[in-house]
TrEMBL record:
Residues 32-241 form the Dienelactone hydrolase domain. The keyword Lyase does not apply. This is Dienelactone hydrolase. It comes from Tropicimonas sediminicola. Residues 1-19 form the signal peptide. The keyword Magnesium does not apply. Keywords: Hydrolase, Signal.
Amino acid sequence: MRAATIILASAFAATSAWAEDVPYTIDGEAFTGYWAEAADPKGLVVIVHDWDGMTDYERQRADMLAEMGYNAFALDMFGNDTPTDTVDHRRAATGALYQDRERMRALLQAGVEQARERSSVDEMVVKGYCFGGAVALEMARSDMGDLAQGYATFHGGLSTPEGQSWNGDEPPLLVLHGGADTSITMQDVATLATELEESGNTYTIEVYSNAPHAFTVFGSDRYQERADAASWEAFSKFLGDQLQG
């Protein structure tokens, strides 16, 4: 664990070969993503933000990935005009997309297209945090699922919406979950595992003891260094397994 912590800490100070905010539009709406380019990329990672939108947190994770040798794009699921300052704002923003899965997929597809247009490598993994984890699984179940070589969630939403299901043909899944998460419970984890077993999916679930929801968010009162380091190490291995360069 000490080695993983050292690797994680060194990545905090890392810089990518090239990084910039990326403005783009979808049907006339303005969005802002973030692109971090590796010097010699082994693959592409698309990052889906949590319920407070695309922030410096996603930028930092993208920079860390670029330093590890992966192109990274943090996409924007809300748009520039969506307020996210308060809990009510965030509930409204995420709730609107949970209720409109067609729009969720359209925004996701547009963000992925932005990433693929910039990347010199095609092999891709999609990862998401909290709300973004639910979005990553939405993509895995969709007709876009085979665009990626794998999907990962960090303390992400795990419920399968009514009318959707797993067919067993989806790329490998990595679920990284806090055992003390009261927003997404261990029962939710067990339900997803049962669905994936029944459909024959390839998946890995890691549960970190005493880690609350949002345990990877730097500087928050929920941040847990041990679980953050362990989950980043697991994700790094997943990238190595799925992206061959």
